[in-house]
Amino acid sequence: MGRSTEGASMLSFKPGGDFNFQEKDPASSRVWGWLVVSVLLGISLVLCAIFYVWLYIQQVQNGYRLAKIYEENELHSTVHRKLKLEWSRFRDPYRLEEIGRNQFGLAPPRPDQKVLMR
Amino acid sequence: MESREPRKFLTARYWSCRVLFQVLVIVGLCAVLGKAFRLQVVEHSIWVERANAQINTTFNVPAYRGSIYDRQGRLLSYSVPQRSLYAGGNSIDNPKKIASHLSLVLGEPQNVLEKKLTGARHFVWLKRHLTDQQAMAVEGLNGRGLNLVSEYKRFYPYRQVAGQVVGFVGLDGTGLEGIEKSFDDVLQGCTTPVGQMRDGVRKCLWLKPSAPPEPAESYGVKLTIDAFIQYLAECELEKIIQKYRARAGEVVVIDTQTSEVLAMVNWPYFDPNLPAKKDAQLWRNRTITDSFEPGSTFKVFLMCAALDENKVRERDRIYCEAGQCKLAGHTIKDVHPYGWLTMQEVIKYSSNIAAAKIALHLGSERYSKYIQGFGFGSLTGVQLPGEVKGLLRPHRKWRPIDLATTGFGQAIGVTSLQLTSAVATIANDGEYSPPLIATRIVDSQGKPVKEFQSPKLRTVIHKKTADQIRAMMTSVTQEGGTGVNAVPEGYTAAGKTGTAQVMDPVTKRYASKKYTAVFTGYIPAEQPKLAISVVIHEPQGAIYGGVVAAPVFRNIAAKALPYLGVMPSVPHPAPGPSLRQANANPASRDKGSVADASTVKSGANSARQAQVHKAASKKADTPAVAVNAKKSQEKPKTSRHDKPKVEKYSRAEGQPIGLY
User: Fold this and answer.
1) How far apart are CA B61 and CA B587, in angstroms?
2) Hey, are the CB atoms on B207 and A59 less than 8 Å from each other?
3) Residue B157 forms contact with A (CB below 8 Å)
């Protein structure tokens, strides 16, 4: 940008008037150029900084979420293990026998209750 | 008076202030830099450590202790996290009030809790392994100084099923008995410490690029035990134990083809969930830790040795001295008097005199070699703790009477597992394989990591000898034998009964009224699938192995074989009087033939069955002469009474050295 204006004479044309050759001060142009560049860079830097802070905040927030999910996962894993244990307890043959005998009145068949299938 | 130039004066003052200000700024900046240098360079490590201590924390990723499964994958042992309650003794505000609340929640005496809470100790367990309800109730108390921490508790969902085999762990999760102890290295879970960050209010956050590790379960062990066969063996054993008011009992079931132990039962039972773990009488696995005299069951192994060494032949006959004889300076008696017996009949009728004669004829060195070959007197190597070798003295120290009595199972001690393993060897054509209790190590997903197999270690007897012995053992369970009660309907069985006297530990003599009833054998007789030993200690009312132990063998086999897919091979007899018969034809069944099926009258077969089942018990009480006379009529040429005729036998003559 600076290069395009450096050392160049500016030709201005006023409508209704004569051609007016006005040569701008090259130093002033250079300062303006630098100023624009600096402002743009500054804005970019601020934006990058904001973006970086935002990213970091997101990372921390996700870290909290992740830790919470991990705790929940552990809790569910514990519950799963307890349920698996309960399921195994239901398959205990002694328990099944107790349930069959006490709750459903089941008992081994007497000889006269047996039917021989042929 | 020299007039001052205000401009100059101002300029000088201005410059001095400016310099002063600059110096101050520079000094301040230097101070800041110096402080920064001190913090960042000189004291860097100290502050880094402080910062890390504040924001970094370590938590342990739990690794559950590995589970124990039966051969079908049923859970026998499992770890579940449970919270434990502890208190910081000094930080409890109102110990009396807290103790009264906790007493209601935990069910513990208030004074005990109060004593713990008021103690000077900084850390004291109030109760370990709370239930979920208790933990929630404690949380609700919001008591200052009360803390809950997660621990792991071992549960045994099948309770007493294989309780002594599975064993148990201590409060710290270390295996103390059974499989829990022998496979502790494999099962033991190792927690993984993982770093984590936390903020000022100790709230955790995870900032690492990788996901946090999940709780893992350590390697598990898959046993050869089948929980169903174990359960039914326990039930059958308990029935007989209660019927005969016995002191204790053991059953071992082995798969003859693989040498895998399918059931290992001890009565009284032991539930590892219950806290009564101090009583070693309950949790001891007697099938491997206790030896007993096997009695007449040992005659089988004597006969194996004698036949294999060609010291006797199958058709040889031996004279049994009509029930009493003097050998090696001692009188040896049979329960029933016999004359001449073939080798098969020696086993079938279980003659002590014949066994003693064969043992003396065989010699101690040869006999000892076979005894050791069958695995007696040495550890079987089963992966369980506390196994004993049994009692087998070096043959050089045997006196002649020791040799004679060892022939019928006295003066020797064996474990139930050794006995079953030895019988499995006979069923396996004489190939000895050590018994196996664990089949594989599996990961948390159930995938096998390591497999165990029982190698064929040695050939103890030739196949021909094994065939001969099997025929003899089969005759024991046939009509007239001592083990007829061992045959389930539809199957053939082979085995040997034994009734051993029990040594009184005080008098060091055989107790007059204490016996061990034993039955050991395999089933089916033609294609052995299961080797089963039943040992009943000190039964009351009946003492004989054929009466007390054989029915347990029969009942276990009758239920276990169909479960294992071994169907009855013997044609089914006609149904008894109380057994109804239904037409399997669906058409007729629709018409209600099942419901109206008429009762079939008892046929000859059922009567025969009843006679056969009573035979053994009668045989124990009926003088053998009657049986022998009948036999001699049937086979006059091979009569066992060629020598003196025995008219009667009186049990009051004296206590025999050996029994069946």
Assistant:
1) 64
2) yes
3) yes
SS3 letters across B419-455 = HHHHHHHHHCCCEECCCECEEEEECCCCCEEEECCCC
Bridge-based pairing of strands B68-69 and B220-223 is parallel
B58 touches chain A (CB under 8 A): no
Determine, for residues A66 and B576 on separate chains, whether the beta-carbon distance falls below 8 Å.
no
Is the Cβ–Cβ distance between B288 and B415 less than 8 Å?
yes
pTM, 2 dp: 0.76
B296 in active site: yes
Structure tokens at B466: 């094994």
pLDDT tens-digit profile of B333-361?
A: 888 888 899 999 999 989 999 999 999 99
User: Rounded distance, CA B471 to CA B345, Å?
Assistant: 11
Note the pLDDT of residue B5.
63
Nearest Cα neighbor of B442 from B122, B646, B138, B186 is B186
What does the H/E/C string look like for A95-109? HHHHHHHHHCCCCCC
Cα separation, B418 vs B161, whole angstroms: 22
What are the angstrom distances between the C-alpha of B658 and each of B123, B405, B477, B497? 63, 8, 20, 12
Measured CA angle at B354 (ends B348, B355), to 5 deg: 85
From B81, B207, B580, residue closest to A78, measured CB to CB: B81
Q: Which two tokens stand for residue B212?
A: 């946090």
* Cα of B591 vs its chain's centroid, Å: 50
DSSP element (H, E) containing B530: strand B530-537
Burial call B183-207: b when 16+ CB within 10 Å, e when fewer: bbebbbbeeeeeebbeeeeeebbbe
pLDDT tens per residue across span A65-93: 988 998 898 889 889 999 999 999 999 99
Q: Do the Cβ atoms of B78 and A81 come within 8 Å?
A: yes
Active-site option among B182, B296, B416, B421: B296
Report the relative pairing of strands B68-69 and B75-87 from DSSP bridges: antiparallel
Q: Is B504 left (phi over 0), alpha (psi -120 to 50) or beta?
A: beta
B383 touches chain A (CB under 8 A): no
Nearest alpha-carbon partner for B291 in B364, B387, B423, B422:
B387
- CA dihedral sign, ordered B629, B631, B636, B640: negative
pLDDT (tens digit, 9 = 90+) per residue, B585-602? Answer: 444 433 333 323 332 333
Total count of residues recorded for chain A? 118
Rounded-to-integer distance, Cα A57 and Cα A51, Å: 10
Distances (CA, A) of B505 to B458, B509, B510, B610: 36, 8, 9, 40
Six-digit token string for B106: 């935990």
Selected residue with higher pLDDT from B2 and B401: B401
Alpha-carbon distance B375 to B254, whole Å? 15
Pick the residue from chain B with its C-alpha nearest to A73: B214
Q: Is the pLDDT of residue B234 over 60?
A: yes
Residues of A in contact with B583 (CB under 8 A): 118
Residues of A in contact with B575 (CB under 8 A): 116
